[in-house]
């Protein structure tokens, strides 16, 4: 009888043990303080527009603010999920865009992107969790 009780206890203990996903990931508050990035195709060459002058001279890329409101167990990874556009070339932007670990989006200064509006979707993940934030950021390419 003792053997049966031990056997039942062992079966219950084994069945009660299951893999628990470590940590947590909360993306409900995930956002950008400025949810769009305007990329101008033509920059001014005059010193009067100093920001344009420095950007062109130093080849400074177009950069967004970091993403805010993401909480979870470190290390949180933010990556590009998808880019859509109704009047631009989403595949071209996808080939040149860079998303940093804090969600900062960077577009090179020298590019051949057509004028248009691009919607960026991101994937946020850490150990055991993954969330998608669709159309969370806009890149707007204008001529001037």
Descriptive report:
The protein has a four-stranded mixed β-sheet with strand order 3-11-10-7. Helix content is 22%, strand content 38%. The protein has three helices and eleven strands; from the N terminus they run αβββαββββαββββ. The mean pLDDT is 89. The protein has one domain: BT4661 domain 1 (Immunoglobulin-like, Sandwich).
List keywords for this structure.
144 residues, Immunoglobulin-like, single chain, alpha+beta
**What is the CATH domain class?**
Mainly Beta
Q: Please tally the β strands and state the result.
A: 11
Corresponding CATH superfamily: BT4661 domain 1
Number of helices: 3
Number of domains: 1
Radius of gyration: 24 Å
| Percentage beta strand | 35-45%
SSE order, one letter for each helix or strand: HEEEHEEEEHEEEE
Strand arrangement in the largest pleated sheet: 3-11-10-7
Proportion in helices: 10-25%
Query: What's the mean pLDDT score?
Result: 89
Structural class: alpha+beta
Main sheet summary: 4 strands, mixed
N-C termini distance: 87 Å
Uncertain stretches: none
């Amino acid at each position: 009888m003792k053997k049966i009780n031990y056997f039942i206890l062992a079966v219950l203990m084994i069945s009660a043990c299951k893999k628990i996903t470590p940590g947590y990931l909360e993306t409900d508050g995930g956002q950008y303080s400025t949810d769009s990035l305007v990329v101008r195709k033509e920059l001014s060459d005059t010193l009067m527009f100093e920001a344009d002058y420095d950007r062109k001279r130093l080849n400074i890329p177009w950069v967004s603010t970091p993403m805010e409101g993401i909480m979870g167990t470190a290390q949180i990874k933010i990556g590009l999920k998808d880019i859509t556009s109704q009047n631009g070339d989403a595949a071209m932007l996808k080939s040149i865009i860079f998303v940093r670990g804090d969600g900062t989006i960077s577009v090179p200064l020298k590019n051949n992107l057509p004028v248009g509006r691009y919607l960026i979707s991101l994937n946020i993940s850490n150990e055991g969790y993954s969330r998608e934030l669709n159309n969370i950021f806009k890149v707007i390419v204008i001529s001037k």
